[in-house]
Dihydroxyacetone kinase family protein (Arthrobacter ginkgonis), 579 residues
Amino acid sequence: MKKLINSAEDVIEDYIDGLVAAGHGLARLPREPIVLRAPRFRKEPDKVAVISGGGSGHEPAHAGYVGPGMLDGAVLGPVFTSPSADDVYSAIKAVATDAGVLLIVKNYTGDRLNFGIAMEMARAEGLDVDMVVVADDVALGDESRAGRRGLAGTVLVHKLAGALAEQGTGLAGIVAALKGFLPGMGTMGVALGPCHSPGREEPNFTLGREEIEWGLGIHGEAGRNRGPLPGSRELATALVEAIAVDRGLAEGTEVAVLVNGLGGTPDLELRIFAGNVIQAARARGLSPELLWTGAFMTSLEMPGVSVTLAALDDASRSLLLEPAAVPGFGAPGHPNGVPDGDGGLPEAPQHEGRVHGETPATVAAAHEFVALLCRRLIEEEDHLTALDRAVGDGDLGTNLARGARSILSCGEELTAGNSLSGYFRDLSTTIRRGVGGTSGPLYSLLALGVAEGIGRAQEAPQLEDWGRGLDIGAALIRELGGAKIGDRTMVDALAPAVEALNGPAASHPEAVAAAARAARQGAESTGAIVAGLGRSSYLGQRALGHPDPGAIAIALLCETAATHLGAMTGADPHPGGGR
């Protein structure tokens, strides 16, 4: 797939540079994937700062909504991948005011996890931070444990929050207003074709000449079901009906309408469809008061549309009509001119250094082992991507390989101290920064658990210390990620592996081999499970027959560990499995 880029690895950096250079009153935080208002447009300290963000590929969301009347900052992750907790934390520190900071988050596990961790980090420093989660997807209803996805309605939430903040409403008041608005807002979309992530030749799904995907998300993943392509009027009627029924929009309800192109739909078709949406809303007895038509929350170059309907009252109507000087929302009066330089922008916060101990050789050996696991993830990038393309958004292999390369490039820094627990704490930070998405924070928690487990050892860590650390990390993943065995996630491989490692096996090779076998068995079993969490949960029965790629990744790592340890000791670990 042809792309007008320099390289797949540089798309976010190059996008931010191009956006800031266009003179929209924007600036970037040096060395961070964060877009802020330029210094002369910064908010007064007595007004709440508003931050949003998420994976890239949805432009103009989210950086296109930074400016007076909407956001104070946007945090950009890799394409279709959540930004790291550290990047979100940096954004909070950069825009924080005396009145507090509001985070607006779409309901995806990676976004909730990373923004939530950053919020807790900031609260620990005494900052007043709160978070509102947008879950406006009506295609899934309430049947998925992962919850409704956050879709294009998030843009209207940006607008409401920004207007309230500009008026001087306090943090608690903004949160209360948004929570009152969200139940009356719903979004549903359809795709006429797939999109192609930068650096990838294959899309995540294919469609027949006359097929469309109904009820898809915004990450290039397949929808809930597919069917024949109707005409524009019929499609508009079906989407309006689905949203009105799901959100309980009664006859006479005044609504705001957002007709959103997914990236590859020409304006000619969007305007035809928008007119049909207005007709369908009126035919159902609704009263459309406000209409926006354009590309607001895209999926790269995907052809398709989504419709958002939001119930209005006098307050929300007035707030949505307030001016906003941002490049992505088409409001009049946005600033032009030469962009400011970096003068006056805060530096990224400095994070804590390592704790030094007494075992440099052990630290070096630990890093050699971690590097071995990293090289395996890089080798398996295409394999894991193919697995994820079948049931998710196709980014798992890329994300894990990116994090693995980041760890390998930081070897000298990671091994500069003499403490094993310090090494794994720093490894946790490197993973958070390098991977992003859902995988980043989850693997980061695993490393934190290892740091705690071996930190309790009174002497050189033994097998039980490593097992305890992995058990702590797995427990953190279950607690913060919300997954349990049977939800078709990495936990289905990790939990049995940790249990086997802490079992009665007499030696390291035997215990690690048992863990590898348990991980592989758990991973393969996910192919027969209807997902409870994660992107696969949006596909329901359609994911059956495909093992969870996150669980397969855990199995591959366990098998690599077992093979390596067996080779070192001369034992035959028989980890089993493989591809």
Notes: The chain has 18 helices and twelve strands.
